Amino acid sequence: MEIALYHPELGYYARAAQKTGRAGDFFTSVDVGPVFGELLARQFAEMWRVLNSLKFDLVEAGAGSGRLARDVLDAAQRDDPEFYSAIRLSLVEASPAARADQLRVLGPHAALLAHSSSAMPDHIEGVIYANELLDALPTHAVAMTGSGLREVFVDEVDGRFVERFEELSSPRIAEYLARAGAEMRVGWRAEVNLAAEDWTKRAAESLERGFLVMIDYGHDERDLYGASHAAGTITSYKQHSQLADFLQEPGETDITAHVDLSAVTRAAERSGLDVLARLDQTYFLLGLGITKLEGLSFRQRLALKTLLLPGGLGSTHKVLIFARGVGRPSLMGCSYRVRLT
Questions:
Q1: CATH (residue range 2-137+192-334)
Q2: What span, in angstroms and rounded, lies between the C-alpha atoms of 84 and 158?
Q3: What does each of the 341 residues of the chain score in pLDDT, given as a tens digit?
Q4: Which of 108, 284, 314, 320 is deepest in the core (most CB within 10 A)?
């Protein structure tokens, strides 16, 4: 998965000219228009006022070419110039091609870009946010066999990629599943995303004071490792269609797996962060006043439905908000803090 997605020349994120939207392979909240960025700007402005600092680090992880950051900055400049003037922007992105395009995409906001790298900056005081990053981190796949738990590896036979079951590559995998209380039956499969835990820990270490916001699709461990996901969740997409075998066309498809929200939350707490909210994207956006936006065109109103409706991005995508050094402020986006379905 790491090679297929992130190889600097042959990986999906290096090769695909258009990954998201109608011309790409999958949709994100960014693709429905600038409304999503506008609402995030509202939340980040409130976070800045909670911090009460002269400068505000706005750090997007998995930023791509900067489309979402551009939407956030457009809204901040238009609606809250005082907040806009405090922003110090950092874009964290693994793809060199995407990073090379960031200044062009940011346009009039390019002067705010203080850091563009594949690594998280140190000493962040502000907010780190990631939209659909963790689901694309390389994950371990496991299967329960008649001989016990085995890890799924990839081999090559007669020019074809095939699966091969072997002993676990790390004791952390079994420890992870034990913490999750996973009781897998013979024939069941699952994913163990140690990289998501590690990323959360690194982000928390970089956050000296402020907030960590993660938006992704996933489940708590009770659902993720239950009968409803007994076949596992790792899959690949091309032109908005799910492929039957994620080993097909490596480097030309998006490979993804659902996020273990419980493991991410534990990793944040172990790193000293406070849990402020875990909720469906619908309730997060309702708290930010999505239904009160005025002067919207018909197309923008359709975009709101895409972001909100159950069964779409509104319920499949979850929002996790953590904090360090700010107590437990009553943020707008946390108004429905217990609403995780």
A1: 3.40.50.12710
A2: 57
A3: 999 998 888 888 876 544 544 444 444 556 556 888 999 999 999 999 999 999 999 999 999 999 999 999 999 999 999 999 999 999 999 888 889 999 999 999 999 999 999 999 999 999 999 999 999 999 999 999 999 999 999 999 998 999 999 999 999 999 999 999 999 999 999 999 999 999 999 999 999 999 999 999 899 999 999 999 999 999 888 765 677 688 888 888 889 999 999 999 999 999 999 999 999 888 898 898 876 666 666 666 666 666 666 555 445 789 999 999 999 999 999 887 656 66
A4: 284
Name residues whose C-beta falls within 8 Å of residue 193's C-beta, 6 or more positions apart in sequence. 134, 137, 139, 140, 257, 259, 260, 263
Q: Are 131 and 121 in contact (CB under 8 A)?
A: no
pTM of the predicted model, to two decimals?
Answer: 0.90
Helix and strand totals (H; E) in the chain: 14, 15
List the domain boundaries for the chain: 2-137+192-334
Beta strands in the chain (DSSP E): 56-61, 87-92, 113-117, 124-131, 140-145, 148-157, 160-166, 189-192, 207-219, 235-238, 241-242, 254-256, 259-260, 274-280, 317-324
CA distance 80 to 96: 32
Residue that the structure tokens 């995303």 belong to: 193
